[in-house]
């Protein structure tokens, strides 16, 4: 099948997880099988592996690609992990890539991108009710400013100003209009001035940080002794959660559940950045189960 998404840090993930024939694999954000296909090519263990994604388009793609030879779970990864624990499932390899997939960004109807004009959606799971449109057009100026600071890491003064502008221009009909409102109140920078605001809205729509925070402590329960877990993050809020969790569970000596394999996060090489610019903010952290 055609490759719809170019996975970031692919060689680094393969080197860090070091998959071996027969090992079981859990991909918590399988997407369009960018990482999964390469790992499964090595393990060849389809019956004991599980691919998870909350996006119905990705889940459908995975079902078409693998048929009934592998378990596909179309739900958020926290719910999936709870279900796997209940079933007593454990794995030798676990991967989570917290980035937005290329098809989500590239399809304007998904509303993730400020470079394409689409509806204010941003839902990874389109079965849920909350959309970006509700946040942009109905939330109070104060609440908007709060999420821009907390999840967009904007300075309070700028967050308040942008929230005020958004409320003033309501109703805002699409992603391009929202991006233009933000751009008109911004100075030139290397990254688009709407980047942090779109990030904040997307995080809230998909409850991203809470799902990560609730899932991390459960990972040792589904990781076999000697098993490896690799996590890719794309902004400091995600990376801080992973870094602090790994640090916390690795500081109990012989009783530690996990051992950190890389003290500093692994980042993309220059060659990959030329081919895949979306890898520029990716950070990979890896740990093994004691």
Q: Strands, helices and their partners?
A:
Blueprint: H1 10-17, E1 25-27, H2 34-43, E2 50-52, H3 56-66, E3 71-73, H4 77-86, E4 91-97, H5 102-106, H6 132-138, H7 141-150, H8 156-168, H9 175-184, H10 195-206, H11 208-215, E5 223-233, H12 236-249, E6 258-260, H13 270-275, E7 283-289
Parallel strand pairs: 1-2, 1-4, 2-3, 4-5
Antiparallel strand pairs: 5-7, 6-7
Unreliable residue stretches:
none
The CATH topology of the largest domain comes to Rossmann fold
Mean pLDDT: 94
User: In what range is the share of β-strand residues?
Assistant: 5-15%
Q: Can you tell me the CATH superfamily of the largest domain?
A: Vaccinia Virus protein VP39
Taking the alpha carbons of the first and last residues, their distance comes to 38 Å
Rg over CA atoms, rounded to whole Å, is 19 Å
The helix fraction, in percent, is 40-55%
CATH architecture of the largest domain: 3-Layer(aba) Sandwich
Name the CATH class of the largest domain: Alpha Beta
The strand count comes to 7
Our count of helices gives 13
Task: Report on this structure.
By secondary structure, this protein is an alpha/beta fold. It folds into two domains: 10-103 and 212-289, Vaccinia Virus protein VP39 (Rossmann fold, 3-Layer(aba) Sandwich), CATH 3.40.50.150; 108-208, DNA polymerase, domain 1. The protein contains 13 helices and seven strands. It has helices at residues 10-17, 34-43, 56-66, 77-86, 102-106, 132-138, 141-150, 156-168, 175-184, 195-206, 208-215, 236-249, 270-275, and strands spanning 25-27, 50-52, 71-73, 91-97, 223-233, 258-260, 283-289. It has a seven-stranded mixed sheet with strand order 3-2-1-4-5-7-6, with helices on both faces. Helix 2 links the parallel strand 1 (25-27) and strand 2. Helix 7 crosses helix 8 and helix 7 (141-150) crosses helix 10. The longest helix is centred in the last third of the chain and has 14 residues, at 236-249. The radius of gyration is 19 Å and the shape is globular.
């Amino acid at each position: 099948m055609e490759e719809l998404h170019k996975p970031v840090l692919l060689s680094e993930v393969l080197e860090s997880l070091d998959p071996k024939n027969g090992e079981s694999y859990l991909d918590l954000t399988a997407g369009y099988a960018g990482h999964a296909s390469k790992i499964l090519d090595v393990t060849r263990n389809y019956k004991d592996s599980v691919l998870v994604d909350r996006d119905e388009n990705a889940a459908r793609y995975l079902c078409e690609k693998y048929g009934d030879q592998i378990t596909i779970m179309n739900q958020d990864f926290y719910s999936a992990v709870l279900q796997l624990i209940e079933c007593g499932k454990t794995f030798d390899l676990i991967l989570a890539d917290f980035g937005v997939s290329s098809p989500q960004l590239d399809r304007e109807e998904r509303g993730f991108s400020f470079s394409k004009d689409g509806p204010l959606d941003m839902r990874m799971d389109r079965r849920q009710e909350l959309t970006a449109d509700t946040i942009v057009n109905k939330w109070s100026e104060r609440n908007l400013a709060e999420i821009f600071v907390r999840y967009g890491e904007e300075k309070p003064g700028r967050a308040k100003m942008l929230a005020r502008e958004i409320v003033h221009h309501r109703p805002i009909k699409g992603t391009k209009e929202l991006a233009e409102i933000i751009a008109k109140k911004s100075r030139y920078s290397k990254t688009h001035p709407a980047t942090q605001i779109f990030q904040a809205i997307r995080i809230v729509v998909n409850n991203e940080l809470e799902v990560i925070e609730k899932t991390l402590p459960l990972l040792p329960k589904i990781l076999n002794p000697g098993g490896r877990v690799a996590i890719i993050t794309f902004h400091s809020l995600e990376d801080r959660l992973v870094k602090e969790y790994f640090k916390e569970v690795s500081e109990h000596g012989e009783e530690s559940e996990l051992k950190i394999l890389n003290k500093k996060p692994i980042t993309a090489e220059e060659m990959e950045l030329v081919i895949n610019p979306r890898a520029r903010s990716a950070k990979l952290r890896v740990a093994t189960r004691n």
